[in-house]
């Protein structure tokens, strides 16, 4: 069924994506739940596919239309912590044992295996030419997408738990500390860091205009403007009124097609934010600490915490 409302303020409803967060908060509606093999990562693919990485290795390929299982990709032996899809539709998956596998977006056949990390691959992002992988081994590897060749390796940066590509040839990454580190994707040198959070940064995501959003265990989301000479803080998103539950931390971030930001806290609170405002539009108590979020091409929200939760 089509959702009629995104939040109580109908003026910000986007016609291509509607979600009754007020009804979820009141317990009147529940997401559709699909049992899977403990899903720990999500990535929307081409041809209306959704990729689901599991804790025991297989990657499930599901239909974005109804969540049905289309295919299972086997090859990894441990948890698939990171997934991303290239512009050509190829799927990249990073595992607990440090390998990255490349899969055809059309057939699901494995194309190649990338080896360069010595510990879990926790973050993957890609641009037109290269794949960037962040690992628990305190390194970032840069791979050529067309050949799988390792172009460069940046070491001793800390355990890389989140990454996001910026507009001006920058890679932003978090290592569990209060600062956001910046890497040039042209000469692979470390640039100025972004500072302001009071606790470890857990989540990073960039908008289409290059705006960077960072979620931290300090309970805030910071919005950064990217400039050619470095980023600057635009605003901090917090919960200043008693109408909303206090965010004890921000674990996951996702951007909806209409530009609104979705955040998840350790207590399982989903908040919807206007990115040009300072307070959440609405929230829903899911009672699940979702490990990851992803939006389909139709703008429907998928969430995972072992099982899949589909907000159609």
Shape: globular
Q: Describe the strand arrangement of the main beta sheet, using strand numbers.
A: 4-3-2-1-26-25
What is the number of helices? 1
Low-confidence stretches: 1-26
**Strand coverage percent:** over 45%
Mean pLDDT: 85
What is the rounded Rg? 19 Å
Summarize the biggest pleated sheet. Answer: 6 strands, antiparallel
How would you describe the overall organization of this protein?
The strands form six sheets. A six-stranded antiparallel β-sheet has the order 4-3-2-1-26-25, with no helix packed on it. A four-stranded antiparallel β-sheet has the order 5-6-7-8, with no helix packed on it. A four-stranded antiparallel β-sheet has the order 9-10-11-12, with no helix packed on it. 42% of the residues are buried. It is 2% helix and 49% strand. The model is unreliable at 1-26 (pLDDT under 50). Strand 5 (80-85) and strand 6 form a beta hairpin. It is built from one helix and 26 strands. With 312 residues, the chain is mainly beta.
List keywords for this structure.
26 strands; six-stranded antiparallel beta sheet; mainly beta; four-stranded antiparallel beta sheet; about 0% helix; disordered N terminus
């Amino acid at each position: 069924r089509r959702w009629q409302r995104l939040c109580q303020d109908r003026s910000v409803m986007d016609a291509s994506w509607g979600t009754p967060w007020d009804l979820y908060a009141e317990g009147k509606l529940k997401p559709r739940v699909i049992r899977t093999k403990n899903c720990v990562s999500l990535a929307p693919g081409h041809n209306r596919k959704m990729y689901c990485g599991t804790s025991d290795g297989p990657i499930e390929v599901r239909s974005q239309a109804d969540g049905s299982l289309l295919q299972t990709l086997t090859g990894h032996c441990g948890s698939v912590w990171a997934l991303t899809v290239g512009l050509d539709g190829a799927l990249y998956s990073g595992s607990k044992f440090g390998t990255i596998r490349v899969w055809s977006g059309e057939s699901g056949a494995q194309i190649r295996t990338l080896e360069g990390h010595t510990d879990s691959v926790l973050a993957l992002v890609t641009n037109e030419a290269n794949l960037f992988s962040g690992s628990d081994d305190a390194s970032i590897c840069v791979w050529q997408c067309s050949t799988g060749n390792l172009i460069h390796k940046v070491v001793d940066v800390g355990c890389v738990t989140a990454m996001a590509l910026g507009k001006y040839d920058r890679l932003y990454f978090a290592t569990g500390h209060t600062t956001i580190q910046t890497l040039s994707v042209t000469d692979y040198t470390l640039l100025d860091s972004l500072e302001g959070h009071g606790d470890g940064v857990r989540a990073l995501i960039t908008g289409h205009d290059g705006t960077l959003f960072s979620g931290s265990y300090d309970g805030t989301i910071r919005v950064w403007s990217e400039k050619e000479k470095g980023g600057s803080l635009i605003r901090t998103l917090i919960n200043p009124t008693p109408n909303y539950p206090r965010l004890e931390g921000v674990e996951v971030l996702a951007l909806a097609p209409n530009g609104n930001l979705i955040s998840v806290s350790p207590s399982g609170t989903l908040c919807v934010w206007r990115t040009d405002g300072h307070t959440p539009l609405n929230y829903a108590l899911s009672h699940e600490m979702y490990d990851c979020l992803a939006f389909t091409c139709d703008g429907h929200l998928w969430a995972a915490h072992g099982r899949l939760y589909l907000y159609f």
